[in-house]
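TL;DR need structure tokens for one chain.
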Amino acid sequence: MEALGVVVALVALFGVTLLVMAVVGMVKAAKAVAAKVDRHSANAQRAVENAALKAKSIARPGEQGRIAALRLSLRTALDSTRQVLQSGLPQDGQLGDALHLLTRLDAHAAELDAELRMLEREPMSSRVAAKLPELRERVERITHSADSLRWAAQDRMRRFADDELARLGKECQDEAGALRHWTPAEPAAEDPAEGTDFQRGSQGTAAASVEEPADRWKGLGAGRPTSAEELLGLAAEPLSRLADRLRKPNPAGPNRP
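>> reply
TL;DR here they are.
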């Protein structure tokens, strides 16, 4: 019974652990989805506001239109710089410092945008005309700083791309040169002993073939000319005696040997 109780307790503990892990995973997933939705909603809201500011800068004449144009230029400079820095950050970690500076610029830009928004609602045109030059100067300073960061980041990424391209081109040229440099395979060296034996055998065969006709025709061309009797083996017996023997009849008869 005690063993059964231990097993039941372990199973219950395992089930509770799985339940807790499932709850934690669901909470994390919900937070990630909520953060993604908030980010997309913020981007969508900012895009809508930028479109509205662009429309105001075109449609509204006078000070109101100029204020809308200042707000739009401020947002456009910061957004463009942020996109460039965030896109190059995975390849170049040094852009993180520039992104940190841009975050500080965002804080000043948010304060300036709030002041411009309040000035946009100001009913007194004289106050608007008095405050607008100062706010325009601040906008230009912030946009110039943001533009400087963006241009420097773009030049840095372009320089790195050019250096990488030059290095890659050099490696390709080296590899092409290595591919064009080939050496034909050397033939296998023959065994000196085998070559000597083969040459000796060839020389012996040639010598035998030369000596054989020399022995066969020995005496034919040396000293004096050879007669027909010597060639037929009849030199030892005169021709007349041979003719007499051939004419002598055979006593056993023509049919007996």
